[in-house]
C-alpha cells in the first residue's frame, strides 16, 4: 500500500507507525492530529507526510479528505489514565464521535481501517490471562476511569457491527501497555514518568503499594503487527497485542533506578489521594497472545530489561 491515512500520527505509536510505513515504501501518508498529546516534531522530517493539524471530530468533509487513500490506521484518541481523568467528557467524545466519523469516511471511500482498542476493556477481570474472548469486568459508571474502556468498547462494537452488515472492513487490536522511545511522561504513562524522575534523581511516585503487575510491549513490534495485519486483510478480527512477561510496578521502579544508576527514592501514594474516589485499578493485566502470534508468525522481540535500557539510552 502506497497511500495511507494515520490519525493520531504525531503521537507516540502513530509516529513509529509513520516511520515504519515510509521505510516499507509508502509514498503518501496523511496524518490527522490535533497535537493534544502528540508533537509535530515527531513527523517533521518525513517529506511523504501531509499533516492536517485538526481535531478529527471537527473535520466536516472527512470523506473528501480520505479520497484516494487505500487504508486508514485510526489511532487518534484521548489516551492515558491521567489524561482521561483530567479530560473526561472530551476524551469520550473523541473516542466515540471521532471514530464514528472515521468509519463513515472509510465506508464512503471503501477503505479498510485498523482501530486501536485497549486492554482496559477487560477491566478488573481475574482470569489468569486475558484472551480475546475473556469476559469484561469493567467497574461501575461512578468510577469514571472506566469511561475510556467503555468508549473503546463502543468503537469495537461499532466496527464489528458494520463488518457484520458488510459495510466496513475493520481490524481491531487491543493494546497492552506499549512502551518505547518518544513516549511522553506528561500524561500518566508509567515507564516514561519513572525514567524521567530517575534521570533527574527525583522521587519516583508509585500509585498504591506497587504490587500491581503489568506487562510491557515494544512499540516497534506493535507497528510491525499493525502492518502485517493490514497486509493479511484480517478484517472482522480482534487481536490482543502485548507481552506475557509480568513485572510489578515496584520491580519496574527498581529496575529503572538500577538501569539509570539513579539516586531517586521510591515513594508511595494512595490512588484516592491522586485521582479521588472515582478511580480503581486492575491488580494484574496479562494478555494471552496466542492468536496474534499464530496469525502473523511474529513474536515479541524484547524483554523488559532490554526495553528499559534502550529507552534510557534514547533519553540521555
Ligand atoms: N500506549 C499504550 O500503551 C496504549 C494502550 C492501549 C491503547 N492505546 C491506543 O493507541 C492509540 C495511540 O496511543 P499513543 O500511546 O500513541 O498515544 P498518544 O497520545 O501519543 O497518541 C494519540 C494521538 O492522537 C492525537 N489526538 C487525540 N485526540 C485527537 C483528536 N480529537 N483529533 C485528532 N488527533 C487527536 C494526539 O494529539 C496524539 O498525537 C490510542 O488510540 C490509544 O487509545 C495505547
CATH topology name: Rossmann fold
Structural class: alpha/beta
Low-confidence stretches: none
Strand count: 13
- Major β-sheet strand ordering: 3-2-1-4-5-6-11
Quickly give the CATH architecture.
3-Layer(aba) Sandwich
SSE topology string? EHEEHEHHEHEEHEEEHEEHEHHH
According to CATH, the homologous superfamily is: NAD(P)-binding Rossmann-like Domain
What portion of residues is helical?
25-40%
Give the CATH level 1 class: Alpha Beta
How many whole angstroms does the radius of gyration measure? 19 Å
Largest sheet: 7 strands, parallel
The fraction of residues in strands falls at 15-25%
Distance between the termini: 36 Å
Ligands: nicotinamide-adenine-dinucleotide
Task: Describe the protein.
- It is a single chain.
- The chain is globular, with a radius of gyration of 19 Å.
- Helix content is 39%, strand content 16%.
- The chain has a seven-stranded parallel β-sheet, sandwiched between helices. A two-stranded parallel ribbon has the order 7-10. Strands 8-13 form a two-stranded parallel sheet.
- The protein has a single domain (3-179, 217-244, 285-301), classed as Rossmann fold (3-Layer(aba) Sandwich), CATH 3.40.50.
- It has helices at 12-23, 62-65, 81-86, 88-109, 146-164, 190-199, 219-231, 249-260, 271-275, 290-296, 304-315, and strands at residues 3-7, 28-32, 49-52, 71-74, 113-118, 170-175, 178-179, 204-207, 213-214, 217-218, 238-241, 247-248, 266-269.
- The chain has 316 residues and is α/β, with parallel strands linked by helices.
- The two termini are 36 Å apart.
- β5, α5 (146-164) and β6 form a beta-alpha-beta unit.
- The protein binds nicotinamide-adenine-dinucleotide.
- Nicotinamide-adenine-dinucleotide binds next to α1, α4 and β5.
